[in-house]
Each structure stands twice: as structure tokens, then as C-alpha cells.
Write a structure and sequence with these properties.
The protein is of the alpha+beta class. The chain is built from 8 helices and 20 strands. Helix 1 packs parallel to helix 4, helix 2 runs antiparallel to helix 3 and helix 3 packs antiparallel against helix 4. The radius of gyration is 29 Å and the shape is globular. The N and C termini lie far apart (73 Å).
Length: 450
């Protein structure tokens, strides 16, 4: 009988020591180490915390992609730790039932397991809070190329909202802004645009990600095709969407600054960024694009650390749904990417820095966007006002210059680039290049149509 008791005690003690060793290794192991358990490999606490720290601190992209993963990892690790605690507690009880002995190692292991559980819970809570920061306005969207894209949602607003805030008189009041209309005429409750201007994923595919060099030197058709290649629902950001964001800024009484003078704001020189060419900010040489999202929070559309970055300055951005042919303005009324469906307006960018009902002469010129004039024969066009092409008093506070060439076909870029100074802004619009234009000062931004 005693031999049986001794055997049971020896087996129980062995199990306890084994569990103690496992939990000790989990709690006290070094970074980069993993411990083998009955349920597979689990990271040591230092390794787990290092992984979590890496996830949290790699920037906005890892915050958004890592929060969910960190939470899942923490939850799984917490369950693993709790299982160790249960197993250790059971083994301790088994030893106590057979003989009044309590190994100090088992007590220590139990305490370590409790600490591990508490640390995992803290990690879980931290990840959850990060996920709540944006209120769901920022999403991490996987594209067909396997890239995770950091996207920002702009919620739908109606003409009435703009009328009430800015004093416009757009009708019908219940109609949504054109930026929220799908090609089939239905309304989107929101649209998504890249939080960051597109960068190259290394394989020639665009991705909205932080701390990257902008994907430059792509002509209009290539930029558009690359965005569409990201999968169903993806496309090049449209002029209507750009205009919606500009109006959002005006309604919220904030216009972002940006990289408007070689890596810094020309107006507020303390607002700086990290130049992709490695040169010092303010050095008026080189290709002074900033790495995506590295500017001040004031460079984001909402004056927040989490907002649409680099709309003003840095790099001109191709937009879809707008062009001029011999000065005549042709637009999409519903974000339709098919140019054959765009509608020619009774509006021309004419000589004399004005909108006209016809083109009287060719010109290549520029003017402050808010100062664009109108001829006596020009009939105001509500759609062009909504698209931030035609200036009206109620939107005249929008900053930036209009550049246009009314000879031939011209495709649009918006926002300005790194040396535009006051010419950059949410209203900045250049219609002076053709669809084949390519340069380091031109980039693009992907959008997703829900």
C-alpha cells in the first residue's frame, strides 16, 4: 500500500515540478525564446511583451493591423497562463491529499503563473484601447495584391449640412454630396481613401502605408490602373471625393498645412517631416517628398494624429472623374471611372483667369483658386461648385492656386507639392498636364468604394 502511495506522490511531484519548470521558463525566459507545452510553443513573457511593443510602435499601420493581432495573441497567452495555473493548482491539491507536503517551487510557480496572467490581461486591454482610438473611422483593408492598406472613412453628408454650415444654397437639400454617389446612382454611407498617399510595395503595386516614399512618376492611366488592380471596389481617388474632404475641412474650420517648402511648412517652419532623399528640411534642392505620414499632426485633414496625411503639398495627386478638353470642363457626376460616361459642362476655363460659357482664346496660366473670375455669359453650375472647381463666396476661404492650360486635353492633380508654398492647399488644382505627364512631383492615392 505504501509503495502505491509513494509512487503516486512521486508522479504528482514530477508533474508539479514539470509544470513549475514550464511556467518558470515562460516567466523568466529571454526575448526571442519560446517554451514547449502540451499545447504547442508559447512565447516567454519578455518575448511576448517585445512582440507587443514592436506591434504598437511601428506606426499607424502597425497600430491598426497589430491591435487585433496583439489582442488575440494576448488573449491566447492569457488562456494558456490560466491553464497552467489550473494545472498547477490541481497538482498541488493532489500532493496535499496524498501527503502533507507543499513544495515551495509549486507555490512560486503558481505566483508566476498569476503574474503572467495579469501581464497578459494588461496587454489585452492595451490592444483593445488602441483599437478603439479611431472609433472605427480607420480600417485596415486587404487588397488583391496581399497588401494591408490603412484607409480613412469619410461619412456621408448632404447638401443641407453644407448649406447650414457654410451658407451655400445647394438643392435638393436631402441629396448627398457627389463624392458619396456610386456609379449606379445609389448612395454610399461613407467612402474610404488612403490615409497615406500611395507608396510602392516593392512589386509595383500601390499601398497606403506609413513611412514610405510616395509612388511617383506614374502617368494618369497607369496610376488609375494600378489602383483598380487592387481588387473589386478599389479605384483612384476621385475629384468628387477630394472635394468632399475639402468641404469637410471648411465645415470644421480647419485646413491642413503640409510639406510646402522642402520638407517643412513654408508658413509654419517648425512643422517638419522626414525627407525621403535624406536632405535637411528647408534645403531647397533634391526631391523633397516626405516619407508618408511623417509630418506634423497639423498636416492631417482633421488636425489629429490619426487623419488623412499629406493632402496639402508633398506631392501632387492624380484624381479621377475630371478633365478639360480645349478648356471645356468634363466631369463624372457619380464617381464613374469610365470616361465615356462623363458629362461635358457648359463651362470653360478661358483666357483672362475666368470661367466662361465658351473658350475665346488659349492660355496657360494660374490664379489663386478663390480669385477665379466668371464672365457675364457664364451660368453658375452647382455641380462644379460642389466639386471645388467653380469658386463661390461660401467656399472662397479654401486655400491653393488653380493652374490650367486650355489647349487640348488636360487631366487633374490636386493639393500641390513640396515647393508650392502658398500655391498648395485643399483647393489647389492643376489642369495643365496631359494624361501622359510623369514626374517625381506627381503621385496618387487609392480609394475604396464600399
Amino acid at each position: 500500500m505504501y509503495e502505491d502511495i509513494d509512487a503516486r506522490l512521486e508522479a504528482a511531484t514530477s508533474k508539479a515540478e514539470n509544470a513549475s519548470g514550464i511556467i518558470h521558463d515562460v516567466a523568466n525566459g529571454a526575448e526571442g525564446e519560446f517554451v514547449t507545452t502540451e499545447n504547442g510553443q508559447v512565447p516567454t513573457i519578455p518575448e511576448f511583451l517585445k512582440q507587443l511593443d514592436d506591434e504598437i510602435n511601428t506606426g499607424a499601420d502597425s497600430i491598426l493591423t497589430g491591435a487585433t493581432q496583439a489582442r488575440d495573441d494576448a488573449e491566447g497567452f492569457r488562456d494558456e497562463s490560466e491553464q497552467f495555473l489550473i494545472q498547477t493548482g490541481n497538482l498541488t491539491q493532489e500532493v496535499s491529499d496524498n501527503k502533507d507536503i507543499t513544495d515551495q517551487n509549486v507555490i512560486t510557480s503558481t505566483e508566476q503563473a498569476t503574474i503572467a496572467t495579469e501581464q497578459a490581461q494588461i496587454a489585452f486591454n492595451s490592444a483593445s484601447k488602441i483599437g478603439d482610438v479611431t472609433g472605427g473611422m480607420v480600417v485596415n483593408r486587404l487588397d488583391a495584391n496581399g497588401n494591408q492598406n490603412v484607409m480613412y472613412k469619410i461619412p456621408m453628408f448632404t447638401n443641407k449640412i453644407v448649406n447650414d454650415v457654410l451658407g451655400t444654397n445647394w438643392l435638393p437639400e436631402e441629396a448627398p454630396h457627389p463624392g458619396f454617389i456610386r456609379p449606379d446612382g445609389t448612395t454610399m454611407p461613407w467612402f474610404e481613401v488612403g490615409m497615406y498617399v500611395a507608396s510602392n510595395d516593392g512589386s509595383g503595386n500601390p499601398v497606403s502605408a506609413p513611412f514610405k516614399r510616395p509612388f511617383d512618376s506614374q502617368d494618369f492611366d497607369t496610376a488609375k490602373a494600378k489602383c483598380q488592380s487592387m481588387g473589386d471596389g478599389w479605384g483612384l481617388m476621385t475629384n468628387a471625393q477630394w472635394a468632399a474632404i475639402a468641404l469637410w475641412c471648411l465645415m470644421n474650420e480647419y485646413q491642413p498645412t503640409g510639406n510646402t517648402y522642402y520638407g517643412q511648412s513654408h508658413e509654419k517652419k517648425h512643422q517638419t517631416s522626414i525627407r525621403q532623399d535624406g536632405l535637411i528640411v528647408g534645403d531647397a534642392s533634391g526631391t523633397a517628398q516626405n516619407l508618408t505620414g511623417t509630418g506634423a499632426k497639423e498636416w492631417n485633414h482633421n488636425n489629429s494624429a490619426i487623419g488623412i496625411a499629406d493632402l496639402v503639398g508633398n506631392i501632387w495627386e492624380w484624381v479621377d472623374g475630371l478633365k478639360i478638353v480645349d478648356g471645356q470642363i468634363i466631369v463624372s457626376e457619380n464617381n464613374d471611372p469610365i470616361e465615356a460616361n462623363w458629362i461635358a459642362q457648359a463651362a470653360y476655363l478661358d483666357d483672362g483667369l475666368k470661367l466662361n460659357s465658351e473658350r475665346l482664346d488659349t492660355t496657360s496660366t494660374n490664379v489663386t483658386w478663390a480669385s477665379l473670375g466668371k464672365s457675364e455669359t457664364y451660368i453658375s453650375n452647382q455641380l462644379l461648385q460642389q466639386l471645388m472647381i467653380e469658386t463661390i463666396t461660401e467656399t472662397g476661404a479654401a486655400l491653393g492656386r488653380l493652374y490650367y492650360n486650355n489647349d487640348g486635353e488636360r487631366l487633374p492633380v490636386r493639393g500641390g507639392f513640396w515647393s508650392n508654398t502658398s500655391g498648395a492647399g485643399v483647393a489647389a488644382l492643376a489642369l495643365d498636364g496631359d494624361r501622359a505627364s510623369r514626374s517625381t512631383s506627381r503621385g496618387f492615392r487609392p480609394a475604396y468604394f464600399e
